[in-house]
Amino acid sequence: MNVATLLEDQAKALPGKAAIICNGKKTTFQQLDETVNRFANYFAKKGISSGDRVLVFILPSAELTATMFGLFKMGAVPVVIDPGMGVKNLLKAIEEVSPQAVIGISKAFVLSALFRKSFRTARIKLKSETLMEKSSGEPGAFTARDMGVDEPAAILFTSGGTGTPKGVVYTHKIFTAQTALLQKMFSLTPDDIGYACFFLFTFFSLGLGMSSYFPSVDMSKAARAKPETLVREITESGASFVSGSPAFWMRTAEYCLARGITLPRVKSLVMFGAPVQVATHEKWRAILPNGTTYSPYGATESLPVSNISGDYILKHTAKETDAGAGTCVGKTVDTVEAGIINSDEIVVSGDVVTREYYNNEKATRESKLFKDGKMWHIIGDVGRIDEEGRIWFYGRKAHVVDIPGARMYPIPCEAVFNRHPGIKRCALIGPSVGGSVIPSLVIERNDGGTKMTEAFLKELHEIRDKHEHTRPIEKFYLKKTFPVDIRHNIKIDRIALRAWAEGRSN
Asked: What is the DSSP string of 71-128?
């Protein structure tokens, strides 16, 4: 088994079809497959071997795609780390994996020169800018190494939003299972065109014979992406399958609605990384006359777990969500099971659930359990599973606010306030003030205002007092902008907000 053979098969079936459209340049499946083979031969020539861990620091491009598939093909293990996690966490992650090689842009080699200790095991260093040129003389054929079902294919680091980033070990079996699941979930065919604002989805699309249009926006800065660019490229590409963080699509929805723009070619707009507000699904319903939104649920360690469409949400669960019942993320996908332990913690098991963190036995022990002959992953989220088998997400376990006599969940509490027309988003926190936990709500207004007026505070109190689960909230804060995660620019950093509130109160 080798996930690279999925691309190889598509090159045989669809040789002249565009695989990648990037910066106006088209690369066919045959050309991409030949580049993958040349890269694999070049990597082997430079000393990279099967099983070697290879740091990959390349921006989304044809070079990144060929590098990843080339490493997969030869049995090497690409390591992907978000540079935005901060220098301290980045260097710790690099030291944790002890890479044998680095393939990256010039900035990566500046970093390796400044922090030689962290890169000391990397005996091979290849600049991505010269890969095409230096591999041009290599053979255009390479036999994919047959990998065992449990042999690692890649190490993908978590973003560290609620803790230290950890290296998640993916196998070729998991990547292959994910590709098959995504095809079934969205009824994808080679006739579909992908526009993915998250590079991992591109690999899956290529394995299904889809053309992939690479966005020109910075995928790491979703909140700053220009809606006009996204809309233009989606339209020009004829994309039918669009994906990325909700941060890309919330402002884009407002842009389209203000101008009467629709996107009739789009069948699926897939948003992931954080719960999607009901209002966002509602807005996109008017923009997608022949499609709908989707919000699959999962984590780096287990993706996907479940899936739900905007159409289903608006028909069946929106009212409950707005009333504080949590966010329904649907039923589990094929081959995946979900359960609840300790009254509210979500656990998952199945073909796409990873088994370990690289070189981190402690984290593996803490997040994996064995029950009924199966391995289960403790996903770190809290919620419930209803009588229909649907998962209801309440938030991260680390963000729950516990007070005497009550357990307060972020998503159910925040949802009832998010319905206020002046509120962009809000966050439940539990700052420690004078030695006591004070249930509080931090609010980001649509107008960016930070002055709490008596009228607004009265409205907040009225909302709070209408719902039993929000009545314990004692204090309200206004903040101009919220700290968010580096990967999707959408997950609210409630721990940072809690520290901010404590600094204001103590």
From this structure: HHHHT-EEEE--GGG-HHHHHHHHHHH--SEEEE-HHHHHHHHHTTTTTTT--EEEEG
b/e string for 134-157 if b means 16 or more Cβ within 10 A?
bbeebeeebebbebeeebbbbbbb
What pLDDT does residue 479 have?
97
Comparing C-alpha atoms, which of 95, 96, 98, 103 is closest to residue 74?
103
pLDDT value, residue 506? 66
Q: How far apart are CA 270 and CA 246, in angstroms?
A: 9
* CA-based nearest residue to 59, from 105, 115, 110, 3: 105
Provide the CB-side half-sphere exposure for 429 (13 A, CA): 24
Strand pairing class (292-294; 241-244)? unpaired
The secondary structure of residue 328, as a DSSP letter, is E
> Which amino acid is present at 175?
F
Residue appearing with tokens 């009824």 = 187
Both tokens of 111, joined, read 């970093």
Contact call for residues 104 and 12 (beta carbons, < 8 A): no
Assigned token pair, 385: 């599973």
pLDDT at residue 481, rounded to an integer? 95
8-state DSSP, 492: B
- Cα dihedral 451, 454, 460, 461 sign: positive
* 304 cis-preceded (ω within 30 degrees of 0): yes
Contact, 331 vs 389, CB < 8 A?
yes
pLDDT for 384 equals: 98
Q: Say if pTM beats, i.e. exceeds, 0.90.
A: yes
Residue 32: which of 43, 14, 20, 44 has the closest Cα? Answer: 20
Asked whether residue 93 carries a pLDDT value surpassing 80, the answer given is yes
Query: How confident is the model over 101-127, as pLDDT tens digits?
Result: 999 999 999 999 999 999 999 999 999
* Greatest extent of the chain over all pairs of C-alpha atoms, in Å: 73
User: CA 413, CA 323: separation in Å to the nearest integer?
Assistant: 9
CA distance 211 to 191: 8
**Containing H/E element for 268?**
strand 268-271
Q: How much is the mean pLDDT over the chain?
A: 95
The helix or strand, by DSSP H or E, that contains position 231, with its residue range, turns out to be helix 227-237
Mean pLDDT of 124-137: 96
Indicate the helix (H) or strand (E) that contains 426.
strand 423-429
- What totals of helices (H) and strands (E) does the chain contain, helices first? 17, 28
Inform me whether the pLDDT recorded for 84 exceeds 80: no
In this prediction, residues 342-370 reach a mean pLDDT of: 96
Report CA-CA distances (Å) from 357 to 196, 220, 231, 273, 486.
26, 24, 38, 20, 20
